[in-house]
Amino acid sequence: MDLSDLLIFSTVVREGGVTRAAERLHRVQSNVTTRIRQLEEDLSVGLFIREGKRLHLAPAGQVLLGYADRLLALADEARGAVHDARPRGTFRLGSMEGTAAVRLPGLLTEYHRRHPRVVLELSTGNPQVLGSAILAGDLDAALVAEPIADTPFEKMFAFDEELVIVAPANHPPIGKKGKLPRTIIVFEHGCPHRKRLEDWYASRSEMPERVVELSSYHATLGCVVAGMGISLIPKSVLTTFPERKRVSVHRPAGAASHAHTVLIWRRGAGSANIVALQEILRDRNSRARQNSANTSGSIIN
Fold it and tell me: Is the pLDDT of residue 171 over 50?
């Protein structure tokens, strides 16, 4: 039983017979008759009561007609959805922890306002975990910090994150003279900011003596306040920390000072939902550039 069988069956019922159904479907009558009999054989039940050349719908045919109408309508809906460029359905988005906490509330609020028919689902993790989830088909797209592999993904710029080293309040300058702090507080392996901090130590021919792994920025900042060690985090995360006055902020030089966050999705697997998020990101970045230009102009004048 396939959709074409159900279409023929439904048309025979609606048109009141094989002859008119064949005309409507642009088929020969013998083909319509054969397909109806094949459908009955497949289901092992008679769908029509035959009186000479007249057909009357049998009880089993009445039951099948309801299902056939629903399946044919669903097939039409599926065809329309495939060719509909409007965002719809479920959008499974991944994000790094800090991005989810600071950047996504406004972004997803705007997305929902523009596209209320889309159901948003959010997962967090490091870029390796999120990238693997996209390739496995568990996520549609993700916001991750570079570097990220180019070959399996398409990507677009989303945010420029300023990274800072946070230490307890009144901590002396870091990285200027003398040894670096002995303990760093970081996320698990796979976190790009952890890698940047470790590389920053290595560039100064040093390495931390102790590494504390945590799974949230607020827990990390709490440990920093307590004097357990230092951490490298997006500066934007500090805006969500109520005790931010109890930490000191130090700006590292080189690659540890900035990170680009990009939107990634599987190469060749773009969708209307992803395009909709790209449009919002472009609009926000355009406004940010305009505001920056206006600010620079006021300073020059």
Answer: yes
pTM for the structure as a whole: 0.71
pLDDT of residue 270: 86
Residue 211 half-sphere exposure toward CB, CA atoms < 13 A: 13
What 3-state class would DSSP assign to 285? Answer: helix
Number of H helices, E strands in the chain: 10, 11
The CATH homologous superfamily of the domain defined by 89-159+261-300: Periplasmic binding protein-like II (3.40.190.10)
Q: Using CA atoms, how far apart are residues 285 and 106, in angstroms rounded to an integer?
A: 13
77-104 pLDDT, tens digit each: 777 667 667 888 899 999 999 999 899 9
Q: Do domains 89-159+261-300 and 160-258 have the same CATH topology?
A: yes
Q: Where are the domains of the chain?
A: 3-83, 89-159+261-300, 160-258
Task: State which CATH number among 3.40.50.150, 1.10.10.10, 3.30.110.70, 3.40.50.2300 fits the domain covering 3-83.
Answer: 1.10.10.10
Angle between helices 59-83 and 3-15 (to 10 degrees): 120
Cα Rg for the chain, rounded, in angstroms?
31
Query: 177: which residues sit within 8 A by CB, 6+ positions away?
Result: none
Cβ-contact 142, 263 below 8 angstroms: yes
